[in-house]
Amino acid sequence: KExxxxxxxxxxxxxxxxxxxxxxxxxxxxxxxxVKLGNTTVICGVKAELAAPAADSANKGYIVPNVExxxxxxxxxxxxxxxxxxxxASQFIADVIENSQIxxxxxxxxxxxxxxxxxxxxxxxxxxxxxxxxxxxFALLAALKNVQLPSVTINEETGLSxxxxxxxxxxxxxxxxxxxxxxxxxxTLLIVDPTAEEEDLAxxxxxxxxxxEGRLCSVHKPGGSPLTGAKLQDCITRAITRHKEVKKxxxxxxxxxxx
Length: 259
What we know:
Elements: E1 17-21, E2 31-37, E3 40-51, E4 62-68, H1 84-100, E5 109-111, E6 115-127, H2 132-146, E7 148-154, E8 161-170, E9 178-185, E10 189-192, H3 196-201, E11 204-210, E12 216-220, H4 229-257
């Protein structure tokens, strides 16, 4: 009623967002990023490997996302195989990659039918305080923008691949999908960027993913209370504004680390 939340934010206010890109995140990965949304902390590492493309898509590489919610990040998760929430988050990220065409899989092909890149994108939550989907999507985008792949050629005589580590080039990022999550209370009230406590109390959540042109890439609504068309439109408008803020933040960080 007072337009105020337990942590002092207004209903439409996001938590402080920081992103750390590159070597200071994971030195052994081909690209990495650490994202903090308030206390929620997510790290993403991208590892590139060579493989033969699938027979039915000889000119495409692969992107394999995996979201982990270890017991380390919150008491709500247990050690062992991935739980429902982690599997749903991995599927959400896979859908975002597919729907937004963040990277054209054709760009990952080195030699048609012979050799292609596989990008393993491991997203690990280090501290869980709600809204893990926004942080995961942000960390993935920032890590992919940090990836440098060596040039690879196939030797005509031997048929073997030759990797030149001295000559590296960045990935072609064709789109910048950004996720914006809302918690729904009493079917009427919407708050952005919910904390873990707010998620537990909410009657539902919805995550909107938009791209550079303000187009919808994905709407993720796992059950809960319904949303009217007008409320959904409100969410989309807010998500488009949030997209600009996140894109500005990523550009600023990348420009600051360019050699």
